[in-house]
Automatic annotation (TrEMBL):
Organism: Paenibacillus whitsoniae
Record keywords: Cell membrane, Membrane, Transmembrane, Transmembrane helix, Transport
InterPro entries cross-referenced by the UniProt entry: BP-dep_ABC_trans_perm (IPR050901), MetI-like (IPR000515), MetI-like_sf (IPR035906)
GO biological process: transmembrane transport
Name listed for the protein in its UniProt record: Carbohydrate ABC transporter permease
Length: 283
C-alpha cells in the first residue's frame, strides 16, 4: 500500500509538468491554427463575438482566387529562386571557410573569426542606406543577383561558425589515414569531411533558407519592380491596404507562404536541432 501511494505521489508532479507543457505548446500553436482557420472564413464573420473557433461554412474561394492571381505565383517563384540560390552559395562558401578555420592555424585567426561574427551585431536598417547607394552605383538594384548577394552576406557569419563546430568534432586521424592512402585535400573534403558533417550542412542550409525566405527589409529596399519582388514585400504591398485589410485573403497568403518552412521542419528537424546544439556540451 505504501509503495503504491508513493508511486501515485511521484506521478502527480509528472502530470503537472505534462499539463504545463501541453498548455505551452497550445499557446505556441494557437496563432498558426487561427491563421489557418481564418483562411477558410468569410470576412463578414471574422469579427463576430463570440468568434467561430471552427468555420461553420468553410470558404475555399480565397485559395482559388489566390492561385488565379498571377502576381502571387510570380512572388512565390521569385522567393523560391532567391532562397535556393542563397542557400546553395552560402553552403558552398561556409563549408570551405569553416574547414579552413577548423583545420589551419594562422595569425589573427581568432580575431578574424570574431570580426566575421561581429557583423551580425549591426542591425539591417543601419546597412540599407549604404548598401542601396553601393548597389545603385554598380547597377545591382532590381536584380535577383544583388538580393542573393545581400542575403548571402547576412547569413554567412553564423553559418561559418555553425559548420566549423562540426568540422572540429571530426578526428584529425581520419584525414591523416586518408593522406597515407594517397587521398588529396579535395578528396578528403568530399569523401570524408563533408559526408560526416551532413547534420551541420543540413542545419546551415535550413537556417539560410529560412532567413532568406523570411526576409523583408533587403527585398523591400533593393527591389522596386513588381515582377521581381519576393513573397514578403509582395504581401505587404499588394495584399495590405492603407485603410482596410482583407484579412481572410491575407491569412490565405500567409498559410501558403509557410508551407515550405513546414516541409523543411517536418523532414529535417533532427538536423536543425543537431546543428543548433552542436558544441553546447563538451566532454
Amino acid at each position: 500500500m505504501q509503495k503504491s501511494a508513493l508511486s501515485n505521489k511521484s506521478k502527480l508532479p509528472n502530470l503537472g509538468q505534462y499539463a504545463l507543457l501541453l498548455l505551452f505548446v497550445l499557446f505556441l500553436i494557437f496563432p498558426l491554427y487561427w491563421m489557418f482557420v481564418t483562411s477558410f472564413k468569410d470576412n463578414s464573420v471574422l469579427f463576430n463575438i463570440p468568434p467561430e473557433w471552427v468555420p461553420k461554412k468553410p470558404v475555399l474561394s480565397h485559395y482559388a482566387k489566390l492561385f488565379a492571381d498571377n502576381y502571387f505565383v510570380i512572388y512565390y517563384r521569385n522567393s523560391l529562386f532567391v532562397s535556393l540560390c542563397t542557400t546553395l552559395i552560402t553552403l558552398l562558401i561556409a563549408m570551405f571557410a569553416g574547414y579552413g578555420f577548423s583545420r589551419f592555424h594562422f595569425k589573427f585567426k581568432n580575431a578574424l573569426m570574431f570580426a566575421i561574427l561581429s557583423t551580425q551585431m549591426l542591425p539591417v536598417v543601419s546597412l540599407l542606406i549604404a548598401l542601396y547607394a553601393m548597389y545603385k552605383s554598380y547597377g545591382l538594384l532590381n536584380t535577383h543577383a544583388g538580393l542573393v548577394i545581400a542575403l548571402t552576406t547576412a547569413s554567412l557569419p553564423f553559418s561559418i561558425w555553425m559548420i566549423k563546430v562540426f568540422f572540429d568534432n571530426i578526428p584529425h586521424s581520419l584525414e591523416e589515414a586518408a593522406k597515407i592512402d594517397g587521398c588529396s585535400r579535395f578528396g578528403i573534403l568530399f569523401r570524408i569531411i563533408f559526408p560526416l558533417s551532413k547534420p551541420g550542412i543540413f542545419s546551415v542550409g535550413i537556417y539560410t533558407f529560412i532567413l532568406s525566405w523570411d526576409d523583408l527589409l533587403y527585398s523591400l529596399t533593393l527591389i522596386n519592380k513588381d515582377n521581381l519582388r519576393t513573397l514578403n514585400p509582395g504581401i505587404s504591398i499588394r495584399y495590405m491596404g492603407e485603410v482596410a485589410y482583407d484579412w481572410a485573403n491575407i491569412m490565405t497568403v500567409c498559410v501558403t507562404a509557410t508551407i515550405p518552412i513546414v516541409i523543411l521542419f517536418l523532414f529535417f528537424q533532427k538536423y536543425m536541432v543537431a546543428g543548433l546544439t552542436a558544441g553546447a556540451v563538451k566532454e
